[in-house]
Amino acid sequence: MKLIRSALHAIRTGRFERSMSALTAAGAAITTAEIYLSHDGASFGNKMMYWPIVVVPTAIPAGVAGFFSRRAARTVLPAASILIVVNGIQGAYLHVRGIRQRPGGLTKYNMESGPPAFAPLLASLVGGMGLLAALLRRETLPGEGN
Protein backbone atom coordinates (compact mmCIF):
# COMPACT_ATOMS: atom_id res chain seq x y z
CA MET A 1 0.00 0.00 0.00
CA LYS A 2 2.88 2.33 0.80
CA LEU A 3 4.34 1.71 -2.68
CA ILE A 4 1.05 2.69 -4.33
CA ARG A 5 0.76 5.84 -2.22
CA SER A 6 4.34 6.74 -3.07
CA ALA A 7 3.70 6.23 -6.80
CA LEU A 8 0.51 8.30 -6.73
CA HIS A 9 2.30 11.11 -4.90
CA ALA A 10 5.10 11.05 -7.47
CA ILE A 11 2.60 11.28 -10.32
CA ARG A 12 0.65 14.14 -8.66
CA THR A 13 3.84 16.13 -8.15
CA GLY A 14 5.14 15.55 -11.69
CA ARG A 15 7.89 13.19 -10.58
CA PHE A 16 7.44 10.53 -13.21
CA GLU A 17 10.54 10.79 -15.43
CA ARG A 18 11.90 7.31 -14.76
CA SER A 19 8.57 5.57 -15.13
CA MET A 20 7.70 7.44 -18.32
CA SER A 21 11.13 6.58 -19.75
CA ALA A 22 10.51 2.89 -19.06
CA LEU A 23 6.98 3.09 -20.49
CA THR A 24 8.40 4.71 -23.63
CA ALA A 25 10.83 1.81 -24.07
CA ALA A 26 8.06 -0.76 -23.58
CA GLY A 27 5.68 1.12 -25.89
CA ALA A 28 8.36 1.32 -28.58
CA ALA A 29 8.97 -2.42 -28.43
CA ILE A 30 5.27 -3.28 -28.72
CA THR A 31 4.66 -0.66 -31.42
CA THR A 32 7.64 -1.84 -33.48
CA ALA A 33 6.33 -5.41 -33.40
CA GLU A 34 2.88 -4.26 -34.54
CA ILE A 35 4.32 -2.09 -37.32
CA TYR A 36 6.54 -4.93 -38.50
CA LEU A 37 3.63 -7.39 -38.68
CA SER A 38 1.40 -4.88 -40.50
CA HIS A 39 4.06 -3.86 -42.99
CA ASP A 40 5.18 -7.46 -43.52
CA GLY A 41 1.55 -8.33 -44.28
CA ALA A 42 1.70 -5.69 -47.01
CA SER A 43 4.99 -7.26 -48.20
CA PHE A 44 6.88 -4.03 -47.51
CA GLY A 45 5.51 -2.87 -50.88
CA ASN A 46 6.97 0.61 -50.43
CA LYS A 47 10.56 1.03 -49.26
CA MET A 48 9.37 3.77 -46.87
CA MET A 49 7.69 1.00 -44.85
CA TYR A 50 11.11 0.09 -43.43
CA TRP A 51 11.60 3.51 -41.82
CA PRO A 52 9.42 2.97 -38.72
CA ILE A 53 11.05 -0.43 -38.22
CA VAL A 54 14.37 1.42 -37.95
CA VAL A 55 13.24 4.62 -36.18
CA VAL A 56 10.75 3.48 -33.51
CA PRO A 57 13.07 0.93 -31.84
CA THR A 58 15.59 3.70 -31.08
CA ALA A 59 13.35 4.56 -28.13
CA ILE A 60 13.97 1.17 -26.53
CA PRO A 61 17.61 1.71 -25.49
CA ALA A 62 16.96 5.44 -25.07
CA GLY A 63 14.07 4.76 -22.68
CA VAL A 64 16.05 2.20 -20.70
CA ALA A 65 18.97 4.64 -20.49
CA GLY A 66 16.54 7.37 -19.40
CA PHE A 67 15.33 5.13 -16.59
CA PHE A 68 18.85 4.72 -15.21
CA SER A 69 20.35 8.10 -16.13
CA ARG A 70 18.92 11.57 -15.63
CA ARG A 71 21.25 12.84 -18.36
CA ALA A 72 20.04 10.28 -20.91
CA ALA A 73 16.43 11.13 -20.05
CA ARG A 74 17.16 14.76 -20.93
CA THR A 75 19.30 14.19 -24.07
CA VAL A 76 19.12 10.82 -25.81
CA LEU A 77 15.45 10.06 -25.12
CA PRO A 78 14.10 13.37 -26.49
CA ALA A 79 16.28 13.03 -29.61
CA ALA A 80 14.91 9.56 -30.36
CA SER A 81 11.40 10.73 -29.49
CA ILE A 82 11.48 13.64 -31.92
CA LEU A 83 12.49 11.26 -34.72
CA ILE A 84 9.56 9.00 -33.86
CA VAL A 85 7.06 11.87 -33.84
CA VAL A 86 8.30 13.13 -37.20
CA ASN A 87 8.25 9.62 -38.66
CA GLY A 88 4.69 9.11 -37.39
CA ILE A 89 3.51 12.32 -39.05
CA GLN A 90 5.24 11.28 -42.26
CA GLY A 91 3.61 7.85 -42.02
CA ALA A 92 0.15 9.37 -41.56
CA TYR A 93 0.71 11.43 -44.72
CA LEU A 94 1.85 8.34 -46.65
CA HIS A 95 -1.09 6.26 -45.40
CA VAL A 96 -3.63 8.91 -46.39
CA ARG A 97 -1.89 9.26 -49.75
CA GLY A 98 -2.16 5.47 -50.17
CA ILE A 99 -5.88 5.60 -49.41
CA ARG A 100 -6.41 8.45 -51.89
CA GLN A 101 -4.61 6.49 -54.63
CA ARG A 102 -7.06 3.60 -54.37
CA PRO A 103 -9.90 3.49 -56.91
CA GLY A 104 -12.59 5.88 -55.70
CA GLY A 105 -10.18 7.94 -53.62
CA LEU A 106 -10.90 8.98 -50.07
CA THR A 107 -14.05 6.99 -49.35
CA LYS A 108 -15.28 5.22 -46.23
CA TYR A 109 -14.65 1.86 -47.88
CA ASN A 110 -11.08 2.78 -48.76
CA MET A 111 -10.50 4.13 -45.26
CA GLU A 112 -11.63 0.78 -43.83
CA SER A 113 -9.79 -1.48 -46.28
CA GLY A 114 -6.68 0.57 -47.09
CA PRO A 115 -3.72 1.47 -44.95
CA PRO A 116 -4.77 2.53 -41.44
CA ALA A 117 -4.77 6.33 -41.66
CA PHE A 118 -4.27 7.01 -37.96
CA ALA A 119 -1.96 4.13 -36.94
CA PRO A 120 1.23 6.12 -37.58
CA LEU A 121 -0.05 8.83 -35.26
CA LEU A 122 -0.38 6.21 -32.55
CA ALA A 123 3.31 5.47 -33.04
CA SER A 124 3.92 9.20 -32.63
CA LEU A 125 2.37 8.93 -29.17
CA VAL A 126 5.30 6.73 -28.14
CA GLY A 127 7.57 9.60 -29.15
CA GLY A 128 5.34 12.00 -27.27
CA MET A 129 5.75 9.90 -24.13
CA GLY A 130 9.52 10.18 -24.47
CA LEU A 131 9.29 13.95 -24.87
CA LEU A 132 7.03 14.15 -21.84
CA ALA A 133 9.52 12.11 -19.80
CA ALA A 134 12.20 14.71 -20.53
CA LEU A 135 9.96 17.45 -19.10
CA LEU A 136 8.97 15.69 -15.90
CA ARG A 137 10.89 15.69 -12.64
CA ARG A 138 12.75 12.55 -11.66
CA GLU A 139 11.14 10.36 -9.02
CA THR A 140 13.09 8.46 -6.44
CA LEU A 141 12.63 4.75 -6.31
CA PRO A 142 11.82 2.92 -3.06
CA GLY A 143 15.04 2.39 -1.15
CA GLU A 144 16.83 5.36 -2.75
CA GLY A 145 17.77 8.45 -0.85
CA ASN A 146 16.57 11.89 -1.93
Quick recap of the structure?
The chain is mainly α and 146 residues long. The protein contains eight helices and no strands. It has helices at 2-12, 17-41, 51-55, 59-68, 70-74, 76-100, 108-113, 119-135.
What does this structure look like?
This protein has 146 residues and is mainly alpha-helical. The protein has one domain. The chain contains eight helices and no strands. It has helices at 2-12, 17-41, 51-55, 59-68, 70-74, 76-100, 108-113, 119-135. The longest helix has 25 residues, at 17-41. The chain starts with a helix and ends in an 11-residue tail after the last helix.
Q: How many helical stretches?
A: 8
The geometry reads as: elongated
Number of strands: 0
Order of helices and strands: HHHHHHHH
Mean pLDDT: 92
Largest sheet: none
Instruction: Provide the β-strand percentage band.
Output: under 5%
Transmembrane segments: 20-37, 49-68, 75-96, 116-136
Keywords: Membrane, Transmembrane, Transmembrane helix
